[in-house]
Amino acid sequence: MNERLLAARLAATRVTDRPGPLTGDLPRIYHAWHQELHGRLAQRFVDLQPSQLFVTCTANARSELVIGPDSRTIVHDQHLGRTLNRMTSYVIREWPASRVQSWAFERLATLAFVGGDLTSTQLGLAFASRFRSADEPPPPDETLDRVRGVFAGAQEFFVLAHEVAHTALGSAAHERLEGHLQDELDAELARTEVVGTKNADEIAAQLARDVATAVERHTGQSPPIDFAPPARLLRAEDGLDERAWLRAHRFLYEEVACDLIATELTLEHFAESDPSIGPQTVLPAILMALHHLTSLEFLATVVDPRALELEATLQATMVRKSVWRDMTRKMYEAERGELGRMYVSATQHHAKYLGDQVLFIVPGHWREAQESLAGRARDNAPDVALLRDAVWSFAKPG
Description:
By secondary structure, the protein is mainly alpha-helical. It has a domain at 97-194 and 240-393. 70% of the residues lie in helices and 4% in strands. The chain has 15 helices and three strands. It has a three-stranded mixed beta sheet with strand order 1-3-2, with helices on both faces. Residues 192-212 and 214-239 have low confidence and may be disordered.
């Protein structure tokens, strides 16, 4: 696709002053990765479909595939990578809850602005400002910063590898992968316990206990007796037979296939570029990226009026993550060992320092504020330009 036309499209449909194509050190790295990934895929598959890479930076933090009459262009949003980097820092550096909440409200403000809800944009900005100065960030730590940098690099490579796998493989290759993967997944998931709907009350009670633990962890107070976790989470977790869900949502087979291909490509990349960064680092980093993506999807359901439609997307993200865990344990545990324990530890750490905030605390604040604002008269119309500048400031490169 013509770069000028694509830049104009992004400028018109996204919140950005840097539609691209961006140049500089980081975009050059992305282009080198893109070329490397095509080369690695060419060793596995025939008749690859060529693609172009267009690097942009938008407050939307969203990559996409643009298909033209004779071209396929991956729009890689640099701010998505920076968002994953920031979320990873929150987990690894164990940032205060208030700072994580401030970031989450920045995301809600951005999502509200993109959706045209200026009042909610103002609300998100106000909450972000309120929580931003509540606590100091953690002190500098070079060792943890290096770990954060390695994790963030693996996550960005994985995300780009996933997109390249989507675009480079033709429909015939995806159909073959889907047929093979369905048999593999059926066999693997059959070995995992499928929770029946008869246990729904028990699951809901456990989830409520998890929420209460999260609230106490971050506020020091127990939630009200009648406190209930968000209904969308219960629907996402209750009695979910992953095999049946995958068969009913066949598009997920391609997502899972691309996840597994991207995982293998990421492991290969680091094995060659820096052998000290092995599977014991790369696999937890990828799992953390999948947790991040779930958190981002969930924030979209908080602010978007199309919540029911987005809940299906959230559920798809959760199933995708669960299947990735099952399949990578099957693929790599024999030679790596203890992946299950490693995955549990990574998941619990993510929940403690980021996931709890996104899933429980921030949505609670948001709903209470929305309810208190309902029906109130607006004194002045919001200044769209000022709100746009505020939202763009979260993404604008320094």
